[in-house]
From TrEMBL:
This is Polyprenol monophosphomannose synthase. The keyword Glycosyltransferase applies. It comes from Flavobacterium frigidarium. Residues 6-174 form the Glycosyltransferase 2-like domain. InterPro entries: DPM1-like, Glyco_trans_2-like, Nucleotide-diphossugar_trans.
Length: 241
């Protein structure tokens, strides 16, 4: 039984999906891949089904009825991974903003290091972002500064979406209570991990913005993150997190 599963949510990623699947499954470490597709109109799921014939037993697909948010896609994937007894569960984007070659770094931090959650961090050694406009770099960087101030978590990249969890973390943080779906989802997952006294480690990576497809970022996701952090802190203060 393979112990590692990489969860990749998709919505209209037909331009990237085959390349990212092949890149992950060609790593020296034998990862498995779970695609959570939100019924993409561009037939991303159909392309995955064709690839499953080639990667039988290593590539899995869950198709949801409609686009329901990044957070709910990952929670769906986490529960699937726990049911199928994986020990190390990864989040990763489909658009190559996260380099598949860095997966093993996250795995090593959890398996050989003492991390319960390993974060592929854009900011732990400075600002390691390629092809983003300065406005977006500043927004992302200072969002993490804001999160550190409000929550007390000493994490440089609180909104990072390239991570590895040990299964014990996902079993104990209360997946059914996860509220947020965008940037705030990533913050909430880390804060719940932090609040349960799990060890969090940041692994430096270089983040490269997508060159194909369309970004899913929106103003509503940013607003959710700003106010979501405050609500998480209040819940923690009143022991209702």
């Amino acid at each position: 039984m393979n112990d590692c599963i990489v969860i990749i949510p998709t919505y209209n990623e037909i331009e990237n999906i085959e390349s990212i699947v092949r890149a992950v499954l060609s790593q020296h470490k034998p990862f498995h891949v779970l695609i959570i597709d939100d019924n993409s109109p561009d037939h991303t799921a159909h392309r995955v089904r064709l690839l499953q014939e080639e990667f039988e037993g290593r590539l899995f697909l869950e198709v949801r009825k409609k686009k329901s948010g990044l957070g709910t896609a990952y929670v769906h994937g986490f529960k699937w991974a726990l049911r199928h007894n994986y020990d190390f569960i990864f989040e990763m984007d489909a658009d190559f903003s996260h380099n598949p070659d860095d997966l093993e770094k996250l795995y090593n931090a959890c398996h050989f290091g003492n991390a319960d959650l390993a974060i592929g961090s854009r900011y732990v050694t400075g600002v390691n972002v390629v092809n983003w406009p300065l406005s977006r770099v500043l927004m992302s960087y200072f969002a993490s500064v804001y999160v550190r101030i409000i929550t007390g978590m000493q994490i440089h990249d609180a909104t990072a979406g390239f991570v590895c969890y040990k299964r014990e973390v996902l079993e104990k943080i209360g997946l059914d209570r996860i509220k947020f779906v965008g940037y705030a989802f990533q913050i909430e997952m880390k804060y719940r991990t932090f609040s349960k006294d799990f060890k969090i480690s940041e692994v430096p990576i270089i983040f490269t913005d997508r060159t194909k497809g369309v970004s899913k970022m929106s103003n509503s996701i940013i607003v959710e993150a700003v106010f979501g952090v405050i609500s998480l802190r209040i819940k923690k203060l009143f022991n209702t997190l």
